[in-house]
């Protein structure tokens, strides 16, 4: 009985750690999109990045709420000084493209960020015994990311085709 309880505690700790990692990843993605919004000149791109940042902010709020429902205190990443290696790689690749307005490479980098996010969601969704509400939330957010990524890929193809003409 004690062994079973210890395994549940370790499992719960693992889920909470992964949930906090997902919160961090969403915070970093929100920061990338907010910073991109501040750099681009094109109003359509500003709106696009504002929407992406807002989406991630909503994801963060829902994940924090779900973590609290699990009886845990979610980490707070506001004003965070240490960002992940992945964040710096994405930002380094994205930043030079922000002045070029709608290049296929810019859209490809957005897709790379979304793929990184989807991988993180899938990693947590593979955990056993997730609460139903957490599982539903993660699946909804992941599926929304996937749907929007596919739309961006279609837009990227259209941009490439217009550049070839």
Count of the separate structural domains:
1
Mean pLDDT: 86
What fraction of residues sit in β-strands? under 5%
Task: Report the radius of gyration as a whole number of Å.
Answer: 18 Å
What does the largest sheet look like?
none
Organism: Pontimicrobium aquaticum
Protein name: DUF2383 domain-containing protein
InterPro entries: DUF2383, Ferritin-like, Ferritin-like_SF
Structure notes:
With 165 residues, the chain is an all-alpha fold. The chain has helices spanning 2-39, 43-69, 85-94, 104-125, 132-164. It is elongated. Residues 2-9 have low confidence and may be disordered.
Provide a short characterization of the protein structure.
The protein is built from five helices and no strands. It is mainly α and 165 residues long. Residues 2-9 have low confidence and may be disordered.
